[in-house]
Amino acid sequence: MSAPRHSSLTSSYGDRAAGATHPLTNYLLRLMELKQSNLCVSADVHSARELLSLADKVGPSIVVLKTHYDLVMGWDFNPQTGTGAYLAALARKHGFLIFEDRKYCDIGSTVQMQYVSGTARVIDWAHIVNANISAGKPMVGAMAEAAAKWRERINYEVRTSVTVGTPVSDDADGRKGSIVSITTVTQSFEPADSPRLSKSLSDVDDIVYPGIEEAPLERGLLLLAQMSSSGNLMDARYTNACIEAARENKDFVMGYVAQESLNSEPDDNFIHMTPGCKLPPEGEEENGEGMQGDGMGQQYNTPAKLIGICGTDIVIVGRGIIKAGDPQGEAERYRVRAWKAYQARLRN
User: Any idea which positions bind substrate (predicted)?
Assistant: First the structure.
């Protein structure tokens, strides 16, 4: 008799959301139920114009948009009106999270600076990032610490923004006190540029996707536990280290980029995202088997195999959608197939 499947494979996304301890995991699982989507599009395009156009087209069909900001020519780093802020506005409008596929891998102090500062200031606009923990598990704790400090700063700035400029009294002393508080905040903190706060883009309406609140300000990490490329060096020892690091940092780690479900302990409720997903041309049957690779190491599998057999939660699709003649229509085709695979998994 085969061993019983883990509860994360037999429970609906909605039921798993109720037991999620990470606020962003809870939100994502509820969003998946609402949109009936477990699709992530990998937006590997080369210009900011292409990126924003693609996000607007496929947004209704996806729950996650995966980016590589360093691929993009013309990325505008302005924290209030630049490319990251524009993506955040589209994410609110269409209901998806932004996942910057940065693959952080370095000592703790370095990854902290890469995450929260620099030209891109990734933490300000990306809900989710990922990490290769070859540099050691302590880097995960370092990134969690950086995210917590960022969150504390954002909380402070949001609280302050409610009172700044409001005199505490009608006399001159009260007004002066208000002015001093503005000076202090401006000198002590950089501007807050989170996806929730950057809402002044003229050509993107300030719309929140109906049926669900805005995404929480918490940030999440995916651990790169397994890869879809042939010849990769992520062996069982490395994958087990990722599992340990995830369990030790549940307040920050949402799950994994992996080829199969790694949930094994009763309390495991980690999300799994899997690249290398491809459908046969429309009209051909999907048989659940693997497909031919791209000749450069990438190996492909269908949604039926990745979700129904391997137990992943979200499939990541890149060229299969972005190189299609109709990316919007192809994204919807992938969404329907991936969701059907999830429903079949629940029935079985």
Answer: 44, 66, 228, 298, 318-319
Half-sphere exposure of 304 (CA within 13 A, CB side): 9
Structural domain span for residue 268:
21-148+205-347
36 labelled binding-site residue: no
Total count of domains within the chain:
1
44 is in an annotated binding site: yes
Rounded to 10°, the helix 236-248/138-163 angle is 30
298 is in an annotated binding site: yes
Q: Is residue 176 part of a domain?
A: no
Task: Name the residues annotated as catalytic.
Answer: 101, 103, 106
**β-strand pairing of 271-274 with 39-42:** unpaired
Q: Is residue 163 part of a domain?
A: no
In a domain, 84, yes or no: yes
Predicted TM-score (pTM) above 0.70: yes
Cα–Cα distance for residue pair 288/296, rounded to 1 Å: 22
pLDDT tens, 142-155? 999 999 999 999 88
Vertex 210: Cα angle to 209 and 215 (nearest 5): 50
